[in-house]
Write a structure and sequence with these properties.
The protein is mainly α and 488 residues long. Helix content is 68%, strand content 0%. The longest helix has 34 residues.
Length: 488
């Protein structure tokens, strides 16, 4: 997910602070690589790619080259020259209304992100209680609503203790379970057991069944989002021009290993036609633990995955909404009701409003029979909305290189135009392919799928922010924000 830093230092202040950071580096390139890996890597998407067996290597590599790399390098140049995150970048390069659109999409994507994240949590918990619940839509909807509203309550009180759990997310919820999956899988194969998915050279590429066979690549774009989060630290390196690319290439390698190896391990033990997109990780653990007669470890694995996911949710719950709030208070983009803070200084009204929408979305799990289908649809809408941010970012980067070529930058991307063009075309292709139902949706209505995805993208990504801009009034801009000065 993207950086939620609030904009607003004046240009001179920003340059001075960046100069001090370069003069007094606080990060090594290795530390930044690990920070970036932690912000991007997750096991949640592994079942989605495990469906494709050995071909998941190809499906992860393609978006890494055409999207992950351009995003990481381009955002580094922007962050080293303009503080304030994507709002400042797009506002400087394009316009303030488009800057608002970018920061709105960062917030809006979480509306579908949290239900899909909590659906993964629900299916994981189900393996401890009753595995059959993992495919029960009513159960999934209830868990989503309970966990989300609990998170809103915790966040609205300004409590940071539980949110701190996410700092251990990479170790507890990703590295340890991921390594365990891979080790158990290798031992499983080493003992002569056949892989559930064929592992021959003929299976390196996904079977071509038309455009539907490409759709899973789109979901990987969202898996890689977040590389720009740590781009704000580029000026804290001793030699950004040399160390940042080195850091990003290492992070990309680590992210690919964390994504690919567990996905392969799942495909070794769970047949594709039996794999749940939400419960696939626990299906694999359950199968391995049963085979090795260590079933008592299933609840332990579930607790590790759940604790990391919930910790991440608590951390991110207030982040995007806080970024939106700060922009709106200084520029008057949201009505006063949504700008109000509670006694703990938290944007409670935004969180509650988002919670109502999340509750409605959660009910879709109860109404649509196949939980995996709902999970996929919401993940796709999340990706579509978030891609708008990257489209704006790539265009803004090219415009800024031309309009402000002499603006101080701590890092300049080699061949910026080429990288932005590749990233832009890849994002546009992903946006288009996202409207094609994946092959496992063969029995459903194509037009119903397109209408659902399109409606989610248009309403969330365009109509709502347009309405805010159209209805915007001078009175929406708070006196407190005006006294602080608006972002430049």
């Amino acid at each position: 997910m993207a950086s939620m830093d609030v904009p607003a230092d004046q240009p001179a202040k920003a340059v001075r602070s960046e100069a001090r950071a370069v003069a007094n580096p606080t990060l090594t390139w290795l530390t930044l690589a690990f920070m970036t890996t932690a912000s991007v890597a997750s096991l949640r998407a592994a079942p989605t790619m495990a469906v494709y067996g050995l071909a998941c290597v190809f499906l992860y590599l393609v978006p890494a080259i055409v999207f992950l790399l351009p995003t990481a390098l381009v955002s580094a140049e922007l962050a080293s020259g303009w503080s304030g995150g994507v709002y400042r970048w797009v506002s400087e390069g394009l316009s303030k209304p488009l800057g608002f659109l970018a920061v709105w999409c960062q917030f809006a994507m979480t509306i579908f992100y949290y239900p899909s994240l909590l659906a993964f949590v629900a299916s994981t918990i189900a393996f401890v209680i009753d595995p059959s619940l993992a495919s029960n839509g009513v159960y999934t909807a209830i868990v989503i609503m309970i966990l989300y509203w609990t998170g809103v309550w915790v966040s609205s009180r300004g409590t940071k203790a539980l949110a701190g759990l996410s700092s251990w997310g990479l170790i507890i919820g990703t590295l340890i379970p991921g390594t365990l999956l891979v080790v158990l899988g290798m031992v499983f194969l080493g003992q002569g057991n056949p892989s559930a998915a064929p592992m021959t050279a003929d299976n390196l590429l996904p079977a071509w069944t038309g455009l539907a066979s490409l759709v899973l690549i789109v979901n990987n774009f969202l898996s890689y989002s977040g590389m720009e989060m740590n781009a704000v630290h580029v000026s804290s390196l001793k030699d950004p021009a040399k160390e940042y690319p080195k850091s990003m290439f290492l992070a990309m390698g680590l992210v690919l290993l964390i994504f690919i190896l567990p996905a392969l391990a799942i495909s070794w033990v769970v047949p594709a036609n039996q794999l749940s997109l939400t419960a696939g990780v626990m299906q694999a653990f359950d199968a391995f633990f049963s085979y090795f007669h260590i079933g008592w470890m299933t609840p332990i694995a579930a607790v590790m995955l759940v604790s990391a996911a919930l910790g991440g949710m608590l951390t991110w719950l207030a982040g995007p909404s806080k970024g939106l709030l700060e922009i709106s208070r200084s520029e008057g983009y949201l009505p006063p009701f949504l700008q109000q803070l509670n006694k703990y200084g938290i944007q409670q009204n935004i969180l509650v409003t988002q919670g109502i929408v999340t509750t409605i979305i959660a009910l879709m799990y109860a109404l649509i029979p196949n939980v995996s289908n709902v999970y996929w649809i919401f993940s796709t809408i999340t990706t579509q909305v978030y891609l708008i941010v990257y489209l704006l970012m790539f265009v803004a980067a090219m415009r800024l290189r031309k309009s402000q070529p002499d603006h101080p930058r701590g890092y300049r991307v080699p061949a910026l135009g080429l990288l932005c063009t590749v990233g832009l075309l890849a994002s546009l292709a992903a946006l288009a392919i996202g409207f094609v139902p994946p092959s496992q949706f063969g029995g459903g209505s194509v037009w119903a799928y397109v209408a659902f995805i399109g409606s989610g993208l248009i309403v969330l990504g365009f109509l709502i922010p347009y309405a805010f801009l159209k209805l915007r009034k001078p009175s929406w801009r708070t006196a407190a924000a005006e006294s602080e000065g608006s972002p430049s």
